[in-house]
Amino acid sequence: MKNFIRIHENDNVAVALQPVGAGTAVDLEGYSVVSKEEIPAGHKIALVDIPEGVDIIKYGFPIGHAKVDIHAGEHVHTHNVKSNLSGLKEYSYHPVAGSDRVEEPQTFMGYVRPDGSVGIRNEVWIIPTVGCVNGIAEAIEDNAKAMMPEGVTRVCAYTHPYGCSQLGGDHLMTQKALCGLIRHPNAGGVLVLGLGCENNQIDDLKQVLGEYDPNRVKFLVCQQVADEITDGTAIVKELMNYAASFKREPVSTSKLIVGLKCGGSDGFSGITANPLLGSFAEKLSAQGGAVMLTEVPEMFGAETMLMDRAENEEIFEKTVSLINDFKEYFMRYGEKINENPSPGNKKGGITTLEDKSLGCVQKGGRLTVRDVLRYGDKVKVPGLSLLQSPGNDLVAATGLAISGAQLILFTTGRGTPFGCPVPTAKVSTQSDIAARKKNWIDFNAGKLLEGEPMSELTEELFAYVLKIASGEACPASEALSKKNLAIFKDGVTL
User: Fold this and answer.
1) What is the Cα–Cα distance from 218 to 215, expressed in whole angstroms?
2) Could you tell me the residue range of the domain that residue 149 belongs to?
3) Of 59, 82, 105, at which residue does a domain stop?
4) Backbone phi, then psi, for 292, in 5-degree steps?
């Protein structure tokens, strides 16, 4: 196995594929340097002298500039690199064709709902309108588990602290989030549990929800009944019996919606796991399926790659708004827009937000951007959609579920055990973490560093996703709690 990789022909740095000691000779694509210091795995080495103020190029794009003179062979990282990111920008549209193709859809075994949507799980969900009834929801869940019929895969109460004392946009975001779950096809039945005096009144929530199937979605206001746990348990029993009437049947992969997310990233994320998800996304899109890319702050510095792949001028303008609106969100609170990556990211070799972003957006492959969704909006078109949500793992993953993802592929170089309302499969960036954290990691993209071709690993990942969708495989995080909703919030709490 070679020591370094140069990702793009224009790069003036290379990435260490394993720890390299001082004095190691590096011969790479016409460059011959000697490491002047230890270079940890996933970190960068300068291939040439980079004077102070000159851009550091990785992935063929600037990831920042040299804070001091950097000499060939030196470690390139936070101590000598500074981000180029600043405030709002004006953009121009330079259309670039996406790598869209068409291939024959495959099938998986899913649950077809009366409205034509398809679930990959057949669960019954209890969704509180307000945090005050969380305990009631959990008590109903506990009762229901003891009487769960064959064919229902889980009963789950999705607790959260919101639904009252919220104003304006936050109140609407809470409603959109809850309605996204109420509509989600992974639930064969849903009990919406209200208190009665909260801001988020059930009648108001119904206005946001729109049409619904009364066989599948039922409501209970706790203040209007004598024993809400007994009544709620009876309703959930009825919903479980209804859900049990659904059976798995063959469904086209054109009905699959997959959320793409990364967290605990490292210097290999943009070399292995994220490009693998990009290849997967291209394959699913070719079969008529849909993928969503989110984490807007982790598009900063790589946004023009997405903008230029916008399907048309309208989508381009929506992408510009997506980026600049999120920058304004940071600026309203006096925060720097480049206040990222995290300590774990830096330890793993990611130096600046541009470095992180250029790796992050590869999860969308080279697909044309077909749509831009605001938080809580439902996926409407096949192919690639961009979704408004922050980089926070729990908030972003919940956002993907709310917008209709039946499952999430989550890449990680550091490892993480978290789950969210839909199956969330963890894809490791390198084999070491896959071997050490078998109880967290579901798929190893580190095989790419060991010589497995991208095409073969893409087929393996696609087959694994179809097993998840068919109920033949469960990501490790599905065995853990997925109950706590992380709803995006931006505003005043009374």
Assistant:
1) 7
2) 123-245
3) 82
4) -125, 135
